[in-house]
Amino acid sequence: MSRPQGVDTSVPSPARVYDHLLGGKDNYEVDRKVADGLLKIIPSMRLVARENRAFLGRAVRYLAGEAGIRQFLDIGTGLPTQDNVHDVAQRIEPAARVVYADNDPVVLVHARALLTSTPEGATDYVEADLREPDAILEHAAATLDFDEPVALLLVAILHFLPDEDGVHGIVARLVDRLAPGSYLVISHGTPEENPQGASDAAEEYTRQAPSAQITPRNRDAINGFFTGLEPVDPGLGYITSWRPEGPVVPPEQVGLYGGVARKP
Ligand SMILES: C[S@@+](CC[C@H](N)C(=O)[O-])C[C@H]1O[C@@H](n2cnc3c(N)ncnc32)[C@H](O)[C@@H]1O
Question: What is the pLDDT of residues 151-206, one digit of tens each?
């Protein structure tokens, strides 16, 4: 692909590494090298990426359908792909409003594909860092009404933030701003089924992309993000077992926990 202005193609980008794992075309040699390194350690990594996307799709369908949610804030959006959040939500509720946020400039370059809303609904994109939650909330308030329920999506992003960034406090700050009846969706890498693989993969990622400090977390630490919220059945578990629609992939092949919870 051509090299867009303002995007550094000499260092790997987590959004592009993930795009490559999903079979996308918006990535470069440096990104594919990271993905190849990860695949050597965890051969099921492509499946992990696809299953994560499938979990996101099921969660958004549940929220837009059964839970009646009309507003979504998706932080750590990644590159546009099939079934972006607004595609899934607006298929069920055309008036759904979605704000996307990511800190990788490459996502902004492709953001036009995220801004294809239905006429009844709305989509917006902000280039912003999760470590500055107030800036994200302020921008999102132009599109979302925070007096009404919002689903906050933090899907496969929190493991990019080490504990030193105060990641639990950041999530609490965001949740605090949400109205009663809002939801939080999280998927997150865990070392529990494959401790050696998780630590080798995190090390390999950081070796090739020093700015990416991957922090897989255990169940208790991930549950901590949901403090004060009511879990939606079946609660926190491996992403593939959250309301599965087909045969369930065994946990040792996915290594990501996922859950959805409601703010009372
Ligand atoms: C693995 S992708 C997940 C994409 C999408 N949420 C999904 O699950 O399909 C992680 C995304 O989080 C973004 N990201 C990582 N750290 C971030 C931060 N501190 N602030 C905002 N975005 C971040 C990356 O740029 C990347 O696009």
Answer: 999 999 999 999 999 999 999 999 999 999 999 999 999 999 999 999 999 999 99
Locate the ligand 1 atom nearest the alpha carbon of residue 128 and give its number. Answer: 21
Task: Answer yes or no: pTM beyond 0.85.
Answer: yes
Give nearest CA residue, ligand 1 atom 11: 76
Superfamily of chain region 14-262: Vaccinia Virus protein VP39 (3.40.50.150)
109: left (phi over 0), alpha (psi -120 to 50) or beta: alpha
Within 6 A (CB) of ligand 1 lie: 14-15, 18, 52-53, 56, 76-78, 102-104, 107, 129-131, 155-157, 160-161
Q: Where are the domains positioned within the chain?
A: 14-262
C-alpha pair distances (Å), 65 with each of 78, 90, 96: 24, 10, 11
